[in-house]
Structure formats: structure tokens, C-alpha cells
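Hi D.,

Good news: the full-assembly prediction came through. Inputs first.
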Amino acid sequence: MNPLDLSLRGQAEAVAAGDVDPAELLDAALARVEQRNPALNAVVDTFPERSREMLDAAPAGPLRGVPIVIKDEWPLPWRAQRFGAAELFEPTAPGESGPYRALRDAGAVIVGVGNMHEMGAGSTGNVSVYGPAHNPWDTNRCPGGSSSGPAAAAAARIVAGAVGADGLGSVRIPAAYCGLTGLKPTFGRSTIEGHHMAPVTRTIVSGPLCADAADCRLLGSVLAGEELRAGETSGLRIGIVRDAVSEDVTAEVREACEAAIESLCEATGGEVREVSLPDLDAATIAGILIINGEGLNGVTPERLNRMHPDISPLNRGLAKYRMLLPAAATVQAGRVRTLMRRRLASLFEEIDVIAWPTLPAPAPPLDAPLVELPSGTLTADQANVRGTALANLTGVPGISVPVGLSSTGLPLGLQLQAAWGRDELLLDAAEALERANDRRWVDSRPPLAEVEQTEA
Amino acid sequence: MPVGLPADMEESNPADEFIPAGLAALGIAVDEVDLAVMAAAHQVFWPAIRGLLSLDTAEVEPEPCPDLSRAP
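Then the structure:
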């Protein structure tokens, strides 16, 4: 078997045991980029000499010799982030971002940079200065965003783990579209050092995208700089919310998520409680307004008038529109943030996790990213953040777990959210769910990523 | 800022005046494509913003310097 078809932890263990030569593993990853990336546009830059230098200097850390793809949102010592755009509003430069340092110190080898939705301003991955990324399950479909390339690369098993960033769902959304497990850690728990918005953001986190929860635990621990210890999940109290976030979804999404919640409940000897969490619509627009306010840092009319001509028309218009957002609404967004944080704090005294569909529908076509929901036709962007913005607004952790395939063969995801600092519980619950369904969904692979039995 | 364009776009709306006037006041240059994008974005955002502003939060005591890494 190609060692790249091992799990992330399997690769790390095989290298540590001397069963796999990490130099060969790196070569295999670069070969996979050559082989699989043309159909995906997931990896937008490789630097074999830099990767080999990382390997040569790799300490005996938990990821020694393991190839990783990192999103084009994190500076590297040899490469400034481009944020999927022709230029950013703030100057960027190569440097040691927190995720880079964490990976380096863990012995990992960065094999490539992952594509992303331009400026992080979309949940589909179909707009980027590099061109759209493609979903490995159906290359005519969106891989999700904004961490489109990391997700597509991990789903295609170019690598077993990738590092994204999540400001309104940008790890969990592509995880759901690509059949991966994606963790949005508690705000501040994973490193965001070196991110160009780090000084101002209270929404963005770094997070892992991997096939399953155990691999997310390993990569998430590296990003957190501490072990996310495994524990027990007996008697899990699962909260469900009857709202658009769980009901204005396709029938297949609803059925898959309800079945998964039932399985998780049975597997943990837990219980499902219907809980009330009003004003989710207000929380969503509050999250959008707050991250847009963060994105205005350093933006001036003069700067907007000098925008690079290759920035997409959509982002050119949106960048200017942001200047008109009313200050009163931003202040109100802060109050809604407080309101929702207090409601969640109270809720998490009664339940352990909130469960609802990560996304209302499977990945839409790249050329028409619309979703058909019971309420009508919406853009994927409009619909997707309804389930993901709350965690960024309030700071709580969230995880998207694969729970099924649509009739068209596209992955479906369930999101679990827990109280601040209970990232480990989410990973424990995700693993319990994997066991409950015999790892059926986390071990599913898109056709182009079937296990290679003959490759050296 | 995930937003995209609305699935159905109205032919005209109040954004036709508000957006160009507001941007002109700020000295921000726009072209027809910019305005079309912004009109579409306005259709998505504005109802939600008005809904947000209409929410009664008078009883919400502000959280000074919220620490998003922990419960309030």
C-alpha cells in the first residue's frame, strides 16, 4: 500500500517505527500532487527543496516526516500568504506563522500550499486567484471554502492532514463538502500567530482537516501546543434545535443527521434533548458584520481605489460595500454576541453538545453554487453560514463529522458544538460516532482516492 | 464574508441611491460592475441588518472586553 493511504497517525507511527522512510513519503506526496492535483487545483504551490530542508531538520516530534498541506492564509518563511487573491489590503511578507512553527516543531513537512476562496470571502471555493478548487467527490462540484484546497487535498489523500483557518465556518464547511472531519477549536486555543488579521480578530482560528477524529486530535494538538486528550463520552447529553438550521435542509441531510444523532445517543448511552436557542438569524448576521469589521482594519477609500485589477468583481464590490455597513449594526452585533454567549453558557449547563447539520445541502456545482432548500433557492454562501457562524461569533468549538452520502454520491456532515475549552469532548463524541457506524463514512473515499495497492 | 449573489435579483431597489451616494461621499470610485455586485449584496445583507437592528437588546448588559476563549 502507498504509505500516503495510511492515516495521519499511521504515517507518523510508521515513520517513528522505521517502517516508512520519510524521504520516500515526501516523494510519494509530491507524486500524488502531480498525479491528482491537476483535476483538483487543491495545491497551488509546492517547494520540494524547502520541504526536504524541513525534513532534514525535523525533530522527533509527533508528526516527524509526515507531509501536510497548509492553507494560503498562513505565511511561511519562504512564502507570503496570498489569501487566494491578487493582493491584500495590508502588506504581507514571508514569515514564521504560528501554524508553520507548530508544524515544524512537531517534525511535520509542509509539502504544499492549499488553494482558498479569494480573501476568505466565500464558502464554496469557486473563486480564487489560482482558479477554482474542485471537489474530489465530483470535480464539477464546489469543495467548500474558504479552506478549499486543504480540504480537497486531504479528501484526495494527497496528504492525510491539512491546516485551514475558520472565521465563519471555513474549516467545517469544506470538511462537510469533502467528507472529512474538520475541527474549529475554541477561539484562542490554536495558534493564529502571523495571520495578517491576528491583531484584530476574535473570530478566526486555525484548525485541522483530516479523514477522522483521531487524526484531527493529533493535528489539532500540534496546532494547540498541547495534547487534546482522549476521554469517555458516556451519557452524552445532545441538544437539538428546531430551527431553520436543522429544518431548512434537504431531506437527505436531515435524515443522515437525525440517524447520526440517534446513533451517537445510543453509542454513548446518552440522551437527546430539544433545546431553545432563539435569534440564530441575528447571530449569523452579527458574525458576518463582526468579521467584516475586522477585515476593514487598515482599509481606506484611497486603498480601495487602488485595488488590484485582478481581484474578482465580486470581492471588489464587496470590499467597497463594507464601507457602508452601519456602525449601529456593528454595535448591535457586539450585543448579540454577548447575548448568544450567555445563552450558550446557560445551555451548556444542561447539555454537552449541540448537534445540527453542518450544511443544509451537499456541494453545489462550481458554476452555479445554489442550493435548493424547503424555503426556496439560496446561494450556498447565504445558506452555509447559518450553521457555522455561531461558533465564531461566540468562541465555542465546533466539529464537522461525515455522516453519509447523498443519492448523488456527495458527502454530508453533522456539526457538534460544545462549551468553551471542550474541544476534546467534540473529538471524543466524533470518535464515538465513528465507532457507532463502523467507520463507514470516515473510511469512505472518493473514486480518485481509492487505496493504491500496487504503488511503491 | 460569505455572501455570494442572491438567487433572484430585483430589477431596482433603494440601493440604487444609497450605495452610489454613500460611496461618493467617501470618495470611493465605483463602476457599473461594482454597483451591480453591491446592489446584489445589499439585497442579501440589508434585510438581515434591519432584523438585527430591530432586536431588542436593551436588557443585554455589555460584556466588557469579552474573552472569546472562555464562557462569559
